[in-house]
Amino acid sequence: MGQQYDVIIIGEGPAGLTAGIYAARADLKTLLIERYGAGGQIVNTYEVDNYPGMPGVTGGELGAAMSEHLDKFNVERIMAEVTGIDFAEKANRVVTDAGEFTAKAVILATGNSPKKLGIPGEAELTGAGVSYCATCDGAFFKKKTVAVIGGGDVAVEDAIFLARGCEKVYLVHRRDELRAAKILQKALFELENVELVWNSVPEQITATDAGSVGALEVKDVKTGQQRTLEVSGVFIATGNDPNSSYIEAIDKDERGYIIADESCATSVPGIFAAGDIRAKRLRQVSTAVADGANAIHSVLEYLI
Ligand code: NAP
Predict the structure, then answer these.
(1) Given this model, what pLDDT does residue 1 score?
(2) Which long-range contacts (CB under 8 A, 24 or more apart) does 247-251 make?
(3) Ligand 1: residues whose CB is within 6 Å?
(4) Residue 49 is a catalytic residue
(5) CATH fold label, 4-113+240-303
(6) Which of 58, 199, 230, 238 has minimal CB crowding within 10 Å?
């Protein structure tokens, strides 16, 4: 049996890091557990232009600033993957690949991950031209032609980012209207090397003889017409799935997001959900940060 904590925070995205700062300031004995690295999904975002007070900050900079802010408080942090939690009143056991830890309260702040399309070629060519992160992999496609799939904020941001270095960018969207914020759409429509492929769904990604992406087959959902886009890269930005599979006996919505209101209290006493993993209307850095603060407020109430 490992150490006993007041609160264990799982996930070091904006929600988890904020919860860590608030926990430290409240003098709670705290452990943060993160599997990949601090910052969460924003580190894969080029620019976060709507976090108040930091116009134009990159996702990497913002994630690093939040992580450094937490370090100011000397909170315990480990790298490990949580595989399960055994609930017990004020003695929840968090099981990880680096040992077990017990805490009176646990905050689930594990966010979500990019959704897979499930089309032929996607899995086989991931890392060989298929990517879920334009800011991570875009530099490999300088002066090349690529496709981005999706019509949300991420897809449009990715297309704008890629258009800076690529010869041409196709944005393939299944409808004839984008879901992305109007300010992003305006910036996108001004780019001459971006072609919108409306009403189209990706059907297959094919490889070159060298084994990397060579083309994307799409189908027009209105006409049924097929089209082959000759591309070296396919960036998939069709939304996310929650990282909530390590925890089962808790109420979730139909997509797997953990049900909790603004207090972040879940169906299990002492277990709180904060950030993108929580069933909520708007997933932004600002709403994740708000959850982190609210979760610690609720933990303090629970501990009293
Ligand atoms: P999203 O808003 O859920 O958009 C997903 C897009 O992918 C939609 O356009 C959707 O089409 C399309 N799509 C979904 N499944 C598909 C499939 N199987 N085949 C083809 N297309 C598919 O996801 P997101 O862009 O990743 O954004 C996630 C969240 O982060 C959102 O709440 C977003 O506002 C937020 N975010 C905000 C900012 C910002 O404010 N700066 C930046 C990044 C992300 P339909 O439109 O037809 O449903």
Answers:
(1) 52
(2) 247/84, 247/85, 247/108, 249/87
(3) 50, 117, 149-155, 157, 174-175, 179, 201, 237-240, 283-284
(4) no
(5) FAD/NAD(P)-binding domain (3.50.50)
(6) 230
